[in-house]
Request: fold
Amino acid sequence: MRNTTFFIIAVVLALQTGCGDRGPVRPADLPKLHPVNITITQGGAPLEGATVNLLSKTPATYSSASAVTDASGVAVLRTYGFTGVPEGQYTVTVAKTAVEGATEQMDGNTKILVGGKIYQYVDAKYHDAETSTLSIDIKAGTTNETLDIGAPVKEFIADNSRD
Reply:
């Protein structure tokens, strides 16, 4: 009897907790997503740590996708947390900022950068969908595209001082 009770409790607990974290629930109206890998180069060299956004040229419920480039300059695009992008035409924006000369400090349980200067490493025209000249056409299947954003830049944005 004791073994049977233990078995029933174990089964109930297993059913309540499920099989672990399954990630986000896919919305029923999310269209079919197609794998999209965009390589961002700057002056012909891969650009690591750049934020890449795709913004649909036609209104849609799921009209954007984003990713950050890896050491090879590759961004694997995701739409609302799911790998891939719906078919369509998109404007591409690219941005990369970094803080130089800062020190790390703890603010409660959060590590923050104090001091230093904030720089932008991508030409400002690529930051906004209104001014970006980059575009991509996503079709069924896998899309692999390389986009070059011109010569490297280093534009001062602000001091990272903490008041």
The first strand starts at residue 36 and ends at 42. The chain is about 10% helix and 40% strand. Residues 32-93+126-155 form a domain with the Immunoglobulin-like fold (CATH 2.60.40.10).
